[in-house]
Design a protein that fits this description.
It is a single chain. By secondary structure, the protein is mainly α. The chain has a domain of 254 residues. Helix 6 packs parallel to helix 8. The relative contact order is 0.14. The N terminus is likely disordered.
Length: 493
């Protein structure tokens, strides 16, 4: 057994790296073709598992023991546990906020305040402000984003475009917030100061966001006549008939945003929001709860049982309107289990690819052709996007390319903020566009729209990497320092 473990490790070849990627792309394509929008409910997970087994076989061929590969997969899953517990609690929060009337109240007032002509742009801007305030695109999408999709339904507007606006705004705000984990992670990996990093990002991020807003405004004016006043009145009446509506129903949202601004970690903050939603449901939605309880074990037990069930199985309602039933039903931890499965299998694949050196092989191949500053930054962005697709996690898509390119940026006399900005331009904001990425899977679970469907409307997320590449080739805001080897030569003289 010892002789097997001590077998020398053979360096991976480019063909080795290409095989599991090819297997994954082919299987994911087949999953989408055969199962359509249901591909994330099992088919994608199986594709990722087969790709993981393929990468593991290559690892075994190159001298890795199964024990080491298995440990890498376990460590990969461990990386996802923080996201998973947050994801499960978000499911509980959505369920209790539907029952408490928090989400219905947001929809109710949104229908009366927001004009269809500027709804898409307003959705993008609102999500941007909230995400910048709390530093979380996930929390923004699960709360404000869910409500805005409800408003879009009432206004007769496209949900996929609304989802694109929500994603655009949420990731713009997250990217520029000093409270965001990725905004802190990127400069830490690159060796840059946090606020220098944020300042440097403004040059690519703000113009991209302005362009996205202009597009959303244009689309909104073209869609402005699609809402039916009668339908809006009908939805408002249904909300009034089934829920107690009032500004006090927004207290759980206000408390959650306050806790996030105060930098409370996501899991306890969302947990408090979910519990507060349950309390608010019992205080203000007694008529609704009484109409749904099973009183066979007693009224009080049935009352408590329904609220408890909302945490793990979500909330459902029968208003007599099928579209409204779909809009006002959902949530629960159980509804997040498919996404949890997807995240775990995706990170297993990413962990094997990194452990066996297959990811590193791609980067080395890219560096051979990245001669200019423009091509280096383009290569970094491409690597971040590729890592998002292969390793399926935005944190890995920042850390791995950051480690691999850091020395090269220094050798070429580029300040660390160039790398940190590029890691965010390529890694952070493209993660929600990939269905099997942790961010894409999460967004699908809360917005109930496949990332492949909303991706073409997430204009900010599409424009920002392209603008960063244009800046790189034109030399706009590319900050330089004296390369390390020239400093050493000067000191020697």
């Amino acid at each position: 057994m010892n002789s097997i473990e001590e077998k020398p490790i053979k360096q991976a070849s480019f063909l080795d790296a290409l095989i599991p990627i090819t297997v994954l792309v082919c299987l994911l394509g087949a999953a989408v073709y055969l199962f359509g929008d249901n591909s994330s409910s099992g088919p994608n997970q199986i594709a990722l598992l087969f790709a993981t087994f393929t990468a593991a076989l290559i690892g075994l061929k190159n001298g890795y023991t199964w024990k080491k590969l298995e440990q890498a997969m376990i460590e990969g899953i461990t990386l996802s546990l923080g996201a998973i517990i947050i994801l499960l609690m978000v499911g509980a929060l959505i369920g209790t906020w539907l029952l408490s009337g928090t989400v219905p109240t947001l929809i109710y007032y949104g229908l009366q305040i927001i004009n269809p002509s500027w709804f898409y742009a307003a959705s993008c801007l609102i999500c941007g402000i909230v995400a910048m305030s709390i530093g979380s695109s996930w929390t923004t999408a699960a709360t404000i984003g869910v409500a805005l999709l409800g408003v879009a339904t009432g206004l007769g507007l496209e949900q996929v475009v609304t989802a694109g606006a929500v994603i655009s705004g949420a990731y713009f705000g997250d990217k520029l917030s000093p409270l965001s984990e990725t905004t802190n992670l990127a400069p830490a990996v690159a060796g840059a100061d946090l606020f220098d990093h944020i300042h440097h990002m403004l040059w690519t991020t703000v113009p991209s966001f302005i362009i996205a807003l202009i597009i959303f405004i244009f689309m909104g004016f073209n869609a402005g006549g699609s809402a039916e006043a009668g339908r809006i009145d009908e939805i408002v009446n249904l909300l009034e008939q089934n829920f107690n509506i009032g500004f006090e129903m927004l207290v759980p949202l206000v408390v959650l945003l306050f806790l996030a601004i105060r930098k409370m970690p996501a899991f306890p903050a969302i947990s408090i929001g979910a519990v507060l939603g349950a309390i608010w449901a019992m205080l203000f939605q007694s008529d609704l709860i009484n109409s749904q309880i099973d009183a066979s074990q007693g009224h009080a037990i049935g009352y408590f049982k329904l609220v408890w069930t909302t945490f793990f199985d979500g909330f459902s309602i029968d208003t007599g309107d099928e579209k409204m039933d779909s809009l006002l039903s959902g949530g629960g931890m159980a509804g997040m289990l498919t996404t949890t499965w997807l995240i775990m299998t995706a990170l297993m694949f990413g962990a094997i690819m990194e452990k066996t050196g297959l990811l590193d092989m791609f980067v080395k191949s890219i560096l051979k052709i990245a001669k200019s500053t423009g091509s280096l930054i383009t290569a970094t962005i491409a690597t971040c996007i590729g890592t998002n697709a292969v390793a399926a996690d935005q944190y890995i898509a920042i850390v791995v390319p950051g480690r691999m390119f850091k020395d090269e940026y220094e050798k070429r006399g580029l300040k660390p903020v160039n790398l940190s900005r590029t890691l965010e331009d390529g890694g952070t904001i493209t993660s929600p566009l990939i269905p099997w990425n942790t961010c894409g899977a999460y967004m699908q679970s809360v917005l109930l729209i496949n990332p492949f469907d909303y991706a073409m409307y997430a204009f900010f997320n599409l424009i920002n990497p392209l603008l960063a590449i244009v800046y790189a080739y034109l030399g706009i805001k590319i900050l330089r320092i004296t390369p390390k080897h020239l400093k050493q030569e000067a000191n020697a003289e």
